[in-house]
Amino acid sequence: MKKTILALFAALTLFACNEDKKADTNLHITGNIRGFKQGTLYIKKLQDTSYITLDSITIKGNSNFKSDLNIDSPQMLYLILDRGQTNSMDDKLAFFAEPGNMTINSNIEGFYSRAKITGSENQKIYEEFLQHRKRYIDIDLDLTQKSIEAIQNNNLKQIDSISEKKEQLLKRRYLITANFVINHSDHEVGPYIALSEIHDINIKYLDTMQKSMTPKVAESHYGKILTELLEDRKKDEAAEVK
């Protein structure tokens, strides 16, 4: 009887510790990587130019996983799959995390392309943006292929025409992206897109994007970086005038 009571006490203590640990976190991720039976999953964030590990999950036979984290602000995280001895280019999945419950399901074959991520409004907006961006990337790739063919044929007139089209496409892509950021200025993914996609845009557009942020977003991780970038750009321009 005494052993039973001690065992029960130990179990309750362990449960309480786990609950305390979970109480200290604000992001709860669960998921399944179908077909992934052996290896390690890492959840990392990019800090400066290095990836910092927030959690590591050992997979042995069961492809389900969970992770409880604490993040100061909604931000881009990375789920990285370590296959052990098998190398693959398809081993990193970016997802925009925000406090709450998130689910990430995928497949070992097509880890990135087959991923389904739910529980984050910022992630939904980011996926919408990626669809817009893909259209411009596809057009640019087509123009690049035509440019290569024109160079091979020494068609100078066509080379100049394609070069002009690529410049116009880039300008249009920048303006469309800036407009997307402004239209989603109440979500933290907005300044992230501005920083990762068009940080070198004309300063007047950068200023408009920065001013469009809601107070909450302006105080977020990427909101503060966008404000710092704008201030640095203004200082650089002022120095050039002098």
Automatic annotation (TrEMBL):
Top-level division of the source organism's lineage: Bacteria
Protein's name in the database: DUF4369 domain-containing protein
Domain DUF4369, residue spans: 28-126
Pfam families, A to Z: DUF4369
Organism: Flavobacterium alkalisoli
